[in-house]
Amino acid sequence: MTSAHPKIHQLLDASFGSLIDENAPARALGSGFLFTEGPIWHPIEHYLLFSDMPGDTRRRWDEAGGVRIQAKPSNKSNGMTRDRDLNLVVCEHATSSVVRFGKGGAREVLASHFKGKELNSPNDLIVANDGAVFFTDPTYGRMPVFGVERPSELGFQGVYRIPPGGGDPQLLVERGMFTQPNGLCLSPDESLLYVNDTVQTNIRVFEIQKSGLKFLNVFASGISDPQKPGVPDGMKCDARGNVWVTAPGGLWVYAPDGRHIGKVAIPEKCANFHWGGRNWRTLFATASTSLYDLEVKVGPHLEPFMRAGT
């Protein structure tokens, strides 16, 4: 009697099968990089940008040309997104800044200091429907390899909001709440903000109020496995409100009620991911030395820039 071949991905709840085929393979699109991060898709021109922080390089991938350099140096850029006008918004480790690149490539600093002190190293970010920018500020960009080694001025690691139209960043959480805040995402109706902590291996969920954030609970904890590489880092919400987060072995997926419903296998330690493709059903994963993609059955929570051209 022969045993069935094991599935590539791990279904922990029947609902996970509606999100991804259990045997959908991850395909390598490029390799030989130092440490890949921050993938972001262009919804009209159909290409992906991603960061290689130690290489101080931003790269581009598309079906016709494969992988090529888009910017070098890149100020050791990490997380990236786009605003409603498709301007590129980037977290730069080397400058401790959130910056925006306009259509002509002009660079504008959106945030670099909090109350007169330099930010640690903005890591990941998301633009809300009203144009506000939420970002995390751990200290990874002040460490060797991933940034420029230097002491921190702030002494805490926060989560911030840049108001619509710009202005000084607003600290949204208590100063001692996070050890190293990293990935973050909004729920589809933008009533909730999820923020993970790489060191604490958990995800917190907050209610977004006019006055700021209201902490609700620890949405998920224990996102670790000593037998497999991977930590909470990049995080996204799909169109149904499920939360996808990098984790041991690839990606772990949680239902809106916090149930752990499945695991997506990625061949290398995965740092971040992003939906793309012409129908938003391709998942691009930046994993250590490589860029991968795999087909999924569900699209992303539609951020403002994703509606361009639709």
Number of DSSP helices?
0
User: Structural class of the helix and strand makeup?
Assistant: mainly beta
The helix/strand order is: EEEEEEEEEEEEEEEEEEEEEEEEEEE
Basic shape: globular
Rg over CA atoms: 18 Å
> In CATH, what is the homologous superfamily?
TolB, C-terminal domain
CATH topology, by name, is Neuraminidase
Characterise the protein shown here:
It is a single chain. The protein has a single domain (10-307), classed as Neuraminidase. Helices cover 0% and strands 44% of the residues. The protein has no helices and 27 strands. The chain has a 5-stranded antiparallel beta sheet, with no helix packed on it. It is globular.
Topology (elements, then pairings):
Blueprint: E1 10-11, E2 27-31, E3 36-41, E4 48-52, E5 57-62, E6 66-71, E7 77-82, E8 88-92, E9 97-101, E10 107-111, E11 113-114, E12 117-118, E13 125-127, E14 133-137, E15 158-162, E16 170-171, E17 181-186, E18 192-197, E19 202-209, E20 212-220, E21 235-237, E22 243-247, E23 250-254, E24 260-265, E25 270-276, E26 282-287, E27 290-295
Antiparallel strand pairs: 1-24, 2-27, 3-4, 4-5, 5-6, 7-8, 8-9, 9-10, 11-12, 13-14, 14-15, 15-16, 17-18, 18-19, 19-20, 21-22, 22-23, 23-24, 25-26, 26-27
